[in-house]
């Protein structure tokens, strides 16, 4: 998985990681198996196979890391303004219900900052700043919470039958002792 700032590694660790990747080229040339290389380097076999494919196509130079992902289109200052806009709610931006979807957030970003970004890009920006996916509770507008609470406390226990009889039982479908 690729993270911002080189995966959170220091400059020394990034250099060390590049040396590990370039060193696999020598091991590929010797014909070592992916399983052995993966176990030695403590990486997945799949990564080693991906590196081997790159090495076959482009040599040792192809084993170099492509670097961190490209920077977000929405800066930190813009995101603080976006949070204010999101705090106003969807109705303030012309939507009738109280749900923020990625498509709606993308539209707000486009209108407010004149930036065009993908829905996946919006998700990455929100996720990077600690926002998470939420599922709204679907409840009727006419719902009376007090009445529901009373019903759960008083009526429901009387209506529900016990789920299981107490006593010994058998998990067999046939009668015990029948041959």
TrEMBL record:
One Pfam family named in its UniProt record: HTH_29
Residue ranges the record marks as coiled coil: none
Chain ranges of the Winged helix-turn helix domain: 96-154
Protein name (Swiss-Prot/TrEMBL): Transposase
InterPro entries: Homeodomain-like_sf (IPR009057), Winged_HTH_dom (IPR025959)
């Amino acid at each position: 998985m690729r993270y911002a700032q080189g995966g959170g590694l220091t400059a020394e660790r990034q250099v060390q990681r590049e040396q590990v990747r370039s060193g696999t080229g020598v091991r590929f040339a010797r014909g070592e198996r992916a399983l052995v290389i993966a176990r030695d380097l403590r990486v997945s076999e799949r990564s080693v196979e991906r590196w081997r494919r790159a090495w076959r196509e482009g040599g040792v130079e192809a084993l170099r890391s492509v670097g961190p992902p490209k920077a977000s289109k929405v800066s930190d200052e813009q995101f603080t303004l976006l949070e204010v806009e999101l705090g106003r709610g969807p109705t303030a931006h012309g939507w009738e219900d109280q749900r923020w979807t990625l498509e709606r957030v993308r539209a707000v970003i486009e209108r407010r900052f004149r930036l065009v970004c993908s829905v996946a890009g919006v998700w990455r920006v929100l996720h990077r700043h600690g926002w998470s996916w939420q599922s709204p509770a679907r409840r009727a507008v006419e719902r009376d919470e007090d009445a529901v609470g009373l019903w759960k406390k008083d009526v429901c226990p009387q209506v529900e039958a016990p789920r299981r009889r107490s006593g010994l039982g058998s998990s067999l479908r046939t009668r015990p002792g029948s041959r």
